[in-house]
Amino acid sequence: MSRRLLKSGIIVSAMTLISRVLGLVRDVVVANLMGAGASADVFFFANKIPNFLRRLFAEGAFSQAFVPVLTEYHASGDMDKTRELVARASGTLGVIVSLVTICGVLFSGAVTAVFGAGWFIDWLHGGPAAAKFELASLLLKITFPYLWFITFVALSGAILNTMGKFAVSSFTPVFLNVMIIGCALFLSPQLAEPEIGLAIGVFLGGMVQFFFQLPFLIKAGVLSRPKWGWRDPGVVKIRTLMIPALFGVSVSQINLLFDTFIASFLQTGSISWLYYSDRLLEFPLGMFGIAIATVILPALSRKHVDAQRSGFSETMDWGVRMVTLLGIPAMLGLMVLAKPMIMVLFMRGSFSPEDVHQASLSLLAYASGLLNFMLIKVLAPGYYSRQDTKTPVRYGIVAMVTNMVLNAIFAWFFGYIGLAIATACSAFVNMALLYRGLHLQRVYIVTRKTIGFIVRLILAGALMVAAVEWQLADMSVWLTWDLLHRASMLIGLIVLGAGVYIVSALILGVRLKDLKAATD
């Protein structure tokens, strides 16, 4: 079992790596084009709404609700029944998402007024941010249809993942990045408002992703004509699981949207600085946290269907060990190298040294919660694979209220950095509650072996930080170097940190056998 999961995890991580690297290239191109000024704030705002929905569906509630039900149907061996479920689910979802998309396009101004309230208030009173509100409303009309495409990308990805075809859905996001990069390089420079070209890139990216997955669904033999099926038993089960899951599993994403709402009242550049920080956070989160969660959800669903209680717990334990092994150095590395990373990746064109400083502060705050974000991705499937969506909702409400209260407090004292701190704190609350619930239900209790494993990794991480700090030059010196010199030094520090972490972990007793589950 662990060998199969490890292989699937490597495939997903490899495909995700390609997508994340292209995502960084995309952000480098956008930073060079627009920096972190008003235009960048508006584009990132208009991109955040459909991007939030992408995470909600592709990596959140829909997959968490659909995969366990599809696994039940698929395990029965009746392909006709499975195809009927897919047809009913896709038809019902298609009608709903079409209505939502049409409303989003028609009422983009209202959406902007809600999530960009600071700009809306300025627009009402003729303030300096009035132009931001008007442009954001226009860009949302272009980017909102992305929701329609990405919903069906999520549906087809969930189907392919359930059948063990992880590579296709993991590679699909590459096309979004390619389209945005292409539009940034060739379309935006021809327009008076370059952010419009980027919004068109988002729209085209969603469309290409949609058409890319269709041949693989046809080959899998599960594609059939969509049908309305609101009262179909399978669809009823999916929506029953999905509605609370929309809230429960996506608390961190809703928190990021709330950050955007507060940031619209703060200084120009706040949304952009938070965006660039979040993008660097998303790299390890997608590479490791989401990749591992993607492969264990179908495995956990099968264990639950087969009533393998011990196998279920062992799969959870494997996921926690893998996440901590990769998450601890990723978290500490982002915190120690926040400013050098942003300097190397983004400081060119319209992105200034001041932008580097500001974005690095929010990255430091966000990164402190990275391990908790990753653990949430692994612990949440422990509920959804058992078709328990109510418990995570209760925990999600607590975490969300925590985030909102801390946002109001920290933003007052620390500005946009306070928003990142509040998000990291709420992630810890959510993670702790998810684990506590699994522990109380006797579904998953972290083993002594895993506790010892994590302690050794923390010690190895501390040694890694000490080694990197020892070799890290003052940032004023970094500013005098050219890009090649900075990049070489950054790569050297990353290699040094990784080397010290691996060697320290081995010396402290971490072995490959620690990554294996007890059963096959």
TrEMBL record:
Record GO terms (molecular function) = lipid-linked peptidoglycan transporter activity
Q: Where in the cell is it found?
A: Cell inner membrane; Cell membrane
Looking up InterPro entries in the UniProt record yields: Lipid_II_flippase_MurJ/MviN (IPR051050), MurJ (IPR004268)
Do the record's keywords include Translocase? no
- State the UniProt keywords alphabetically: Cell inner membrane, Cell membrane, Cell shape, Cell wall biogenesis/degradation, Membrane, Peptidoglycan synthesis, Transmembrane, Transmembrane helix, Transport
Q: Which CDD domains match?
A: MATE_MurJ_like
CC terms in the record's Gene Ontology section: plasma membrane
Q: Where are the transmembrane segments?
A: 93-121, 141-162, 174-192, 198-220, 241-263, 283-301, 322-347, 359-380, 392-413, 419-438, 450-468, 488-510
Q: Which domain of life is it from?
A: Bacteria
Q: Which GO terms describe its biological process?
A: cell wall organization; lipid translocation; peptidoglycan biosynthetic process; regulation of cell shape
- What the protein does? Involved in peptidoglycan biosynthesis. Transports lipid-linked peptidoglycan precursors from the inner to the outer leaflet of the cytoplasmic membrane.
Family recorded in the similarity comment = Belongs to the MurJ/MviN family.
What is the protein name for this chain?
Probable lipid II flippase MurJ
What's the source species' lineage?
Answer: Bacteria, Pseudomonadati, Pseudomonadota, Gammaproteobacteria, Vibrionales
Gene encoding it?
Answer: murJ
